[in-house]
Amino acid sequence: MTQAFVVGSGPNGLVAAVTLARAGYAVTVVEAQSTVGGGVRSAELTVPGLIHDHCAAIHPLAMENPLLRSLNSDDGVGLEWLWPRVQCAHPLFRGARGGAALYRDVHATAQQFPTAHDRFWWERLFRPLASNFTKLASDILQPPLRLAQRQTDGHRWGDLLQFGVLAGLPAAATSRLLLSAEARALFAGVAAHAFRPLTSTGSSAVGMMLTTAAHASGWPFAKGGSQNITNALVHALEQSGGRIATDSPIRSLDDLPASTNDIIMLDTTPQAALGIIDASRRPPHVPAHVRAALSRYKYGPGVAVVNFAIDGEIPWTYQPAREAGSVHLGGSVRDIHAAEREINRGRLPERPFVLVTQQYVVDPSRSRGNLHPIDAYAHVPAGYVGNRSAIRGSSEQRHESALCASIENCIEQYAPGFRERIVAKKIRTPADVEHDNANFVGGNITTGANTLGGLLGRPRLSTNPYAVTGRSDGPQVYLCSAVTPPGAGAHGLCGFYAAQAALSR
């Protein structure tokens, strides 16, 4: 039986492993750490009994992966998806009751806006895309150059054209199609998931994709923690005959008993992939253009994360935020742009963009009585360690406390009394985030800079950006991490498409 080896056990590595195992390969997953899952793990990080997600918490594109859709609780793996009533909320005015909410229903979202113009245009922008999202996503989530090879009917080309034109715009320009501060801020807050200044070309792409996904299939999360996604994938792999080896760092291809016809999937950074290949005694050939693209791959800004245990719910002044799975704290379009511009210049903003996840609103299994877990992610410069000149003589612990206080202050402005409800907390700096997952270089959870070039050609512009080695006498090597299309997110689609590329080759 032909073998397949998968280096790294994040969602993409595991999805690739299951796909190959179901195709008849003898699959072995090797993981450097003692636990599997990469960015899709959960643990009791603050108080015993409270379940926090390590990184991936909300899963907007999970329903677009046919493999993940098939892993439901009926299979005995315990994976159950939950949807909050409000997919995300964007409080707008500090200490006031204003804001906007993103509902699954396009009409319900549009009707909250104060102007007829915005109500019309929100429906005009998102209803056609959401109604055909499954087919649309199957096109736009794959490598862009593959579109020319696909049989796509005229109606789908119309949707693709509308999406493509808007996605290519700066998010600031797309938001100006709307008039009210509420509608503009709601879109800009979703677009901020790209970690890009809102005036940069293509910064609308992530906002268009995630907003459409919210209206089409929602932003679900896994009951009991994202760890259950990993557990379900491990179960599916073992049911298909695959196995996993933990505490097994791979430094070269020589560490794998692979033969000529075998497949090797690397759920790693591009630089780590080249390092593993080059350290081998007889490294397979990496074409010069591939090597050049992988060597110059660039990363984006990072995150600092604070996990809180709170007594009771967060007292948001904007009421829909109390029913939201996630809450965007960024203020106006201008505020969001200023914050994202600063982190891309290597500076910490006075008011960083903060995303709060509060799965307890529909998942009491993560809580302990009235004690709830919440996680706050602040956008910061890559590898941010603070202003050393400003804190000369201070310990790293004091710097972390200042960063934590900044995040607390941000939440307090929109939820007065929040600080009084904190029972326990844990801060993770960008360095901690990278330590948890080596693919998050500098704390960059998007695993790459979402520039226009990064969106279209990560890690390189090709119909098969997953292939690393050329055709040779050795095993075929592929990248399957989130540096490949369609990019970041715990959807596993990078692994799914990489495995399909290997099978078709």
From TrEMBL:
Highest taxon, organism lineage: Bacteria
Secretion signal span: none
Transmembrane segments: none
InterPro entries: FAD/NAD-bd_sf
Protein name: NAD(P)/FAD-dependent oxidoreductase
Species annotation: Corynebacterium pseudokroppenstedtii
